[in-house]
Design a protein that fits this description.
With 530 residues, the protein is of the alpha/beta class. The protein is built from 21 helices and nine strands.
């Protein structure tokens, strides 16, 4: 294991254009992306995937370097941010002019109702002898208000924000709307609201008022300045609102050369809280049903996202390393006498997290070209009763079981654990995908399968399903892999395909299956680890 030399987690001043339009507080720096793209020898002839793209650091850096890229993100406001940050088409002067016009209309509307945005508060009465009557302040609908962190935005700044938002949405010319809305999202987090960011998002000093229109306008002007530098670069970028565990829903098989990403870590950070203020105010989340749907598309990494329907833990049911980790957490819980509902879920969420990552890595194999290079930025955690989880090491072992080859685990930086004040490692797990031939000791399944005929043509879906089963059930030295129709249906479910159609297909393609011997119980996905 070698030490990674670029330990600076701060963004360089030269990297701020576009990257700084909107960022997560926990985003990795652009120079980390550049380092690995250079190390992997990536050029404009390759395609880079970030399956947990967040606010688009990998995508923006790839576009700056002229490298085609694809992002996957399941948080709608983060997806919106990534999509907007790689759109460099707007004319910068026209964007600035339009924002100035919207600002003027908003200021006029606020003044007409007795509110001074720049001087803060209420306008004084014209005769100077009367206390001005407070106008009726606008609010979000109750079902949206209850989603906000208490005091995350004060009533008067919220009112002014909603007036500005009304003028933005009323304008029929939508050429600049996405950029203007993203500027408002950033202003909400940085200056309009009362948020503070540490190990977890929280509420700081509650401001009775804050400038809204000028804060927003300043950020639009910064965007326009950056666009003056970036226009004319037309490198292709696609950003999908999708689940990283269901990549074949949006990506073509064997279409990716490089993966650079940072998935969530197993801890008690609810990542939806980090973006809650802008998600609710801008309408990406309108009620608890929207919030629940958002969480369903995320890797389970904290107890607040766990539901009774979750079954990703089945992917690591036979993994001794995960089982030992869960037993350590549960033993610590009993030792400390912790009995809350969340604490009882610590072991389960650990299994769901690593099961979700195995499910993601399993699906990922189908979209990677042979020889693809991968880098996963992950961090050690001790959030669950101070039981240390070596995330990078565990993820590397699980990936090896799926046929990936681990090249190195590079130390990116260290950070202090909130509870213990001990140093935790943040690492980059570097791997490559050798392709089905090298990973499983034989010819690629999609190339060597006999024709599974459905209407006279080879069924690509069926071939991919058999490859999925093969990769899960293959044991070193075996000359064949046995499976049943139940295994086919389970693999189809894992790949997100129509089970009824695949079941029928399996009935007409029995010639492709080795002799059937039921080796694994039906309720669990076959997963052999350790």
């Amino acid at each position: 294991m070698r030490r990674f030399s670029l330990q600076n987690n701060q963004m360089d001043d030269a990297d701020e254009p576009v990257h700084n339009w909107y960022r997560f507080v926990l985003s990795f720096p652009p120079h980390l992306v550049r380092h690995y793209l250079h190390r992997f020898g990536v050029s404009e002839h390759h395609c880079v995937l970030d399956p947990f793209c967040g606010t688009g650091t990998t995508l923006v850096e790839c576009k700056k370097l002229g490298i085609p890229s694809i992002g996957i993100e399941s948080n709608p406001v983060a997806w919106f941010a990534s999509q907007t940050k790689v759109d460099w088409r707007p004319d910068p002067d026209a964007l600035s002019d339009h924002a100035e016009w919207i600002a003027g209309k908003t200021w006029a509307a606020l003044q007409a109702s007795g509110i001074a945005d720049e001087a803060f508060g209420l306008l004084a009465a014209t005769n100077g002898s009367r206390t001005p009557t407070p106008p009726e302040l606008r609010e979000l609908p109750p079902e949206q208000m209850e989603l906000l962190l208490t005091n995350s935005i004060s009533p008067l700044p919220l009112h002014k924000t909603l007036v500005l938002l009304e003028h933005l949405q009323a304008d029929t010319d939508s050429r600049w709307r996405h950029h203007e809305l993203l500027a408002l999202a950033r202003a909400l987090v940085e200056s309009i609201g009362n948020l503070r960011f540490g190990p977890e998002v929280g509420v700081g000093a509650v401001k009775p008022d804050a400038p809204v229109v000028s804060s927003w306008l300043e950020r639009v002007r910064c965007m326009a300045q950056d666009l003056r530098q970036m226009r004319g670069r037309d490198t292709p970028v696609r950003v999908h609102l999708a689940d990283a565990r269901q990549l074949l829903d949006v990506l073509q098989p064997q279409s990716i050369d490089v993966v650079f990403t940072s998935p969530p870590y197993p801890n008690e950070k609810d990542y939806t809280r980090t973006t809650r203020l802008e998600s609710v105010v801008l309408g990406f989340i309108r009620n608890r049903a929207d919030l629940k749907a958002l969480k369903r598309g995320l890797i389970r990494s904290n107890t607040r996202g766990v539901t009774s329907e979750d079954d990703d833990d089945g992917w690591v049911a036979a993994c001794p390393r995960i089982q030992a980790l869960v037993e350590s957490i549960e033993a610590r819980r009993l030792e400390l006498g912790k009995t809350s509902g969340f604490e009882r879920l610590y072991g389960r969420v650990t299994k769901l997290y690593f099961g979700g990552m195995v499910r993601h890595l399993s699906e990922l194999r189908h979209v990677l070209r042979p020889g693809a290079r991968l880098a996963y930025v992950v961090g050690d955690q001790a959030s669950y009763l101070r039981v240390l989880i070596r995330t990078g090491q565990v993820l590397a072992e699980l990936a090896q079981d799926l046929g990936y080859e681990v090249e190195s685990i590079d130390l990116f930086r260290t950070r202090l654990a909130t509870a213990t004040r001990e140093l935790l490692r943040e690492e980059v797990v570097v791997m490559h995908w050798p392709g089905a031939r090298n990973a499983f000791g034989g010819t690629s399944m999609t190339q060597s399968l006999p024709n599974a005929r459905n209407g006279g043509v080879m069924t690509t879906q069926y071939a991919s399903i058999v490859e999925h089963i093969f990769s899960e059930k293959y044991e070193a030295g075996a000359s064949e892999v046995s499976f049943t129709r139940a295994n086919i249906v389970m693999a189809a479910q894992a790949l997100g395909w129509n089970c009824r159609r695949i079941w029928v297909m399996s009935s007409t393609a029995s010639a492709t299956a080795p002799p059937c011997r039921h080796r694994y119980p039906a309720p669990h996905r076959p997963a052999k680890h350790g």
